[in-house]
Amino acid sequence: MPGPATEGSTSDSFLHHKFSSKFNAPDAEVTFQSCDGLCYRIHRKNLECAAAAFPAAEFASKKEDIVPMLEHSEVLDLLFVFMYPERQPNLRKVSFRVLADLAEAAEKFQVYSAVHTCNTYMVLETERHPLDVLVYAARHNYQDLLDKAAALVIGLPLDTVIDRMPPAIAVAWVRYYQKWRDAYSKAIVRPTRCAPAKCTAWSQNVVLPILDKLGGKIEMLSKPDDLFLEVATVSDCCSNHLKNWRDHIGTVCEDIPKFSTLV
C-alpha cells in the first residue's frame, strides 16, 4: 500500500492550487479539495482499502480533476492519516469541534479505523459536550452512548435539543422529555406532614429544602445524592418519611424508559 509523500512536485495545471505538504505524492491518482481550498493527493488503492464509502472507481481518472469536499482541512488532515499505514493522530490535542467533525466524516466515508478511534474520544467528551455527543450517537446508532448523553441533556430546554436533531429523533426526544415531566409530577408527591402532630420539622426542614433544590428541574431526579444532601440529620419520624420519599423517587425514575428504546 502506498504511503503519503512528505514532498512532491505538482503538475503545471495544479500550480494555482494549494496542496497539503503531507499528502502530495506525485503518483497519487485522486485529488481532493477541502472546503477551505487545500488539496490532497491520495492513492486510489488506499481509498479502496481503508474507506468503504470512498467509491474510487467513480472518481475522475485524470490527475488534473479535483474532487470537492465539504470538510475543512483541519478535518481532512486527520482523516487521510487513517488511510495510510502510519501512527494514528493524537486526538487529545484537537479541539472538540474538530473531533466532532472528524467523527462525522469518518462515519460518512466509513473509514472504520477512524470511526472506532473517534467514538472512543467522543465517549470521553460526553460530560463536557452532552448535546453534541447525543446528536452524534443518535445519528449513528450508538445506543449506550445515546442513553448516557440523554440523561445529561434532559435538563436543557426542549427547543434547544430538538433544533439539533433529525426530525425522527426529535419526535422521540419529545416523548422522552414528556416521560421525565410525568416522572417529576409523581416525584413531588410526598407525605404532607409527619405522623406525630407535634412534629413541625417535616415541612420546614425537609420538604421545603428539597422542593427548592428540585425547582422544576427534572434532571435533579437523576441526582438523589444531591437532592437529599444536607437533610440527613432529622428526627426519627421525619427520617422514615424521608427514606420513603427517596425510595419513591427512585422507583419513579426506574420507570422512565431509556431514550434508545424510543428511537
From TrEMBL:
Database matches in InterPro entries: SKP1/BTB/POZ_sf, Xyl_isomerase-like_sf
Source domain of life: Eukaryota
This protein's name: BTB domain-containing protein
Organism encoding this protein: Amanita muscaria (strain Koide BX008)
